[in-house]
User: Fold this.
Amino acid sequence: MLTLDHSFSHQQPAIASSAKLEPFLMSQPDRSLSNGQLRKQKLAAYAYTVLPETDSRRAQLKSDFVLASMHHLKVRSSLIPLFKAWADADLKALVFKGFFLAEFVYDNPAQRAYGDVDILINPNDAAKAAELARELGWREVWRAGLETDAAPADKISHEVLHLEHPHYPIRLDVHGQVTHVVNSNASVQTQITRAFWQRAEKHSWEGTSVYLPGLADALLVGLVMNRCWSADDWQLKPQDYLDFKVLVAKGLSEPELFDRAKELRCAKTYRLFLERCNPFLQKLDLKQPTAKQRWLWEMQIVFERGMPRLERRFSFISYLVIDSLWALPSFLLALCFFLCPWRLQSFMNLLPLKDKPLYEWQFLRLQRSVRVYLYITGMYWLNPEPLQQLMTFVSLRRIGQPVTMRQIKGERVLKLREERL
Assistant:
């Protein structure tokens, strides 16, 4: 069964063993934290660099450190030709968040685990950036304004391009806005992105150049806003305290951060973040916030950002209502064919087929609307499969997909272009 779209309710998993993690991250010895727990929280390589040599856990973490170092070197060597091609074409690219912190802020890149590489460009440069990346072998997975498996053409996002390395698991999230966008009203994000660029500095790097954010912006935008204004929904990550601490160690002061927060109009958000993550006061609380806490914090930042949590929820419900209304004829027809199966063949002959691909996002939204009616009718808790198959079949035929329904070894199977759904 496909899961519901997480566009509004992307909940971070609760931080395991926060009572043990918090002292460790604040440089307080805690020998009860196992290597398995460190690996689960992506802190194994970092732990190898900070645990004393006499600690028995350290020897077992050496392989984690080596693998993290090799991964970063591979990412780094893959990015250098791409950034050089962009710089030669006068495309400005700014790196921030995980890779930026590992490469340019931490003492050792292996200390900072990261997944995707986040890059900020001018949205108008997305097509050219994608073209140059493809010439170097990168795969263009999605680009704003184009319909792909990943998203429809009208997807609203702060990102403009997704690229994947052809041979190594490296994904580039190329942003047009530096903070998350939920709906078409992105005036706040545009202002912050403009201010972010103004503080950025051009940096010579491995025979080319790349733009880096100001340290205060790296913290306030890349960390604070990213946790509080995005689908992370106020859930802190263990690396947040370390990121905060190393950025402060580079020369950031409390007054400087508060002054910049006022300029970026995120001072209240920053104060709320400090209540749970504050290296200046050795304060850290990784517990998962309750729904009540999230809504209270959201209301306190309404004049800075609006209510992003409410925006995500409204966006999700809007799509759900639109998709469900579209699927109503499919539900009624499926009921008809469930009761009168001999009518199915005549229905198949009425609708023309189209030579159009079925995108993954289409199928996921279609399946979601199918489940809405299964829940409404109570069929979901009884025997949903027959009606679910019929409704999926009808919906696909309504959009011109050449789906077929066949009996195979006593089982009814849906196939699309000879592939089983």
About this structure: DSSP finds 18 helices and twelve strands in the chain.
